[in-house]
Amino acid sequence: MTAGPHNVEFEQNLVPANLSIWQEALFAADILLLHASPTYYGLGVPHGDGSAVIVIPGFLGTDAYLGQFRTWLGRIGYRPYFSGIGVNAECPNLLIQRRLTLCIEKALDETGRRIHVIGHSLGGIIARSIASQRPDNIASVTTLAAPFRGTVAHRTVLRAAEAVRGKILRQHGTQVLPTCYTGRCTCNFLDSLKRNVPNSIVQTAIYTRSDGIVDWRYCLTGLDGCDFEVPGTHIGLSFNASAYSIVANRLALARTTKYTRDK
């Protein structure tokens, strides 16, 4: 486990990082290695108890690219759910309120158990926010290359984020705060990231030092036994055999309890 920046405040500003984004082209190797791994076929990893797992895509991504990950979760004994958020290029606060909440409620009703949330990149930041907001509903939260300690990313990513921010402000107007889609926003989404995830929730942060998109040091919980380094790329972490093995073991550690809805 590598010590992380858990003792520092959430980085409020969008900060450019000196990263080699070109190496992200190697994500194809992650896909090839995944299909050659026994882990992908459910071999050598613990199997699940039928509890729900919601998977959340990264910045500008949709549920589609997480299709293999979702299929694999079903193969090893879980009940996977796509997030249903569409393209992840929207105010995260609104995504949680209007779309992810529907998915969470459906998963709770259909399984009767606390659920797991897993997110890639920005999806992982959203997953952490959900875990802080709804601790009684969440059994575990797993992030894949998610900079939930601050937005320290490649300049190309920051420029794209600024374009998305402009679209959000034009589309929603007064429905969002003027600082929406920045680390200075005071909405519930950002506020929840500044709170500690309760000990009742199993936390897992998977990262790669070869990340060409975000600064890997901002992807760590800093908690003993919760941060896991794997080889690979930022994009490829959603197709990474080593990450899949860690996910299987961490989900098994967080065997879910029955969930009783308040009357």
Q: What do these coordinates show?
A:
With 263 residues, the chain is of the alpha/beta class. It has a single domain, classed as Rossmann fold (3-Layer(aba) Sandwich), CATH 3.40.50.1820. It is built from 7 helices and 8 strands. β4, α4 and β5 form a beta-alpha-beta unit. The longest helix has 20 residues. The N terminus is likely disordered.
Task: Compose a concise summary of this entry.
This protein has 263 residues and is α/β, with parallel strands linked by helices.
Largest sheet properties: 6 strands, parallel
Question: Which strand-content bin applies to the residues?
Answer: 15-25%
Computed over alpha carbons, the radius of gyration is: 17 Å
Number of helices: 7
Q: CATH class, anyone?
A: Alpha Beta
Q: What's the CATH topology label?
A: Rossmann fold
Give the SSE order as H and E letters: EHEHEHEHEEHHEEH
Number of strands: 8
Any idea what the CATH superfamily is called?
Answer: Alpha/Beta hydrolase fold, catalytic domain
- Per CATH, the architecture is 3-Layer(aba) Sandwich
Q: How is the largest sheet built, in terms of strand order?
A: 3-2-4-5-7-8
Number of separate domains: 1
> Terminal Cα separation, in Å?
42 Å
Percent of residues in helices: 25-40%
Which labels suit this protein?
alpha/beta, Rossmann fold, 16% strand, six-stranded parallel β-sheet, two-stranded parallel sheet, disordered N terminus
Blueprint of the fold:
Layout: E1 11-16, H1 27-35, E2 52-56, H2 67-75, E3 79-82, H3 92-111, E4 115-120, H4 122-133, E5 138-144, E6 150-153, H5 155-172, H6 188-193, E7 202-207, E8 227-229, H7 241-253
Parallel strand pairs: 1-6, 2-3, 2-4, 4-5, 5-7, 7-8
